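Sample log: Branched-chain amino acid ABC transporter permease.
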Amino acid sequence: MNREDLRRRIGVDGRLLSVETWDQIKHTERFIGGAAVVFVLTFSWTISSAPVISDFVQGYHRLALSMMAWMLLGLSFNFLLGQTGLLSFGHAMFWGGSGYAAALFALHVSGSPLLILVVGVLFSVVLAFLSALVLLRLHGVYFAIVTLAIAQTLYRLVREPLEPITKGINGLRPSFDPLLGVFALGEYRGPLEFLGSGMYVFLGIFFVATIVLITRVRKSPYGLIFKAVQENETRARFVGLDVWRYKYAAFMLSAFIGGLAGTLFFMVTGPGLMSGSVVPERMLWTNSGNLVVMVVLGGLGTLAGPLVGVFLFQWMGSVLNGLGWVIPGLSILGPIGQYWQMLVALAFTAVVWTYPEGVWGMITDATAALREPQTIPEKLKRKTPGLRSDAEQGDDR
């Protein structure tokens, strides 16, 4: 490497990494895949054992497992709504349906984790294939309502008519065999203790693969067509695109990831790390509604937004919910933790009102503003409805 090449790589001003270079690197597929690997390697340790952070977050390893499965479901929902504009209020059918398929397979056929995962995902794909024949003929709120109806129908089926098979409200709790008959998925000790367990590594591999897959699709011609369909379906049809086919492809891919998430969630919620658990409430409408809140809160249409939204929602529901701290002088109100759902509602309302891009949008805007501090007043004015002029608000409407 000659001197001129070196100067070009490190920048004329001698800095190792300029802002412009960083802007180019952070959107590459290699960087996003590498960031996903680093996230998996550090997430469980950070919330459960890292100095200072774990004291504040008060997380634990099983919470990290649960959060990562929910994050996969958030990515699945976000891909469908954020890329093609299809709002599903019934994503719980993939979440719970794949769990039941996997549990029944583990009980009656094989305890192999890989085969269990394949069966759970296949069930979700078949369910999507059949339901898409009806759903993709509908638009807007009708699509959302029918997805909700399908999920509620499955919920009722596994709770009562199929009770002899599904054990009704008690659910199913089968055990697994070691991975490939050799690798146990239980707790790690020694040098790998920071990863927590073999089940975490198993889940993490599929988490990274999903991030890479979604990034590849978003940056491919397919991803651009999905965005075109979302922004103006009629115009996309006029230029010769088969809109139904692309919506069908997006729905199937979303169901595939949803089934992967549901099966992995079943595998990480059992009484032990080598057993799973699934109950009818997994398919209840509240899970679909909570999923919408998580994704919108974090940032719809982005890759990191659903991860942020899931983390905040799950942390509030699991850790803040148990917080016994009482506001001084207001002991009559009881522990602050019991109001966690109200705090989520306030945060959700604030985000929708002022920052439709979600918490992740706030973070990216804040970092951009730090690079150009002179633009902060104008951005605040644009983001806060009360500070905008009537003419500006009229333009938005």
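Observation: The first helix runs from residue 3 to 10.
Observation: Confidence is low (pLDDT under 50) at residues 393-397.
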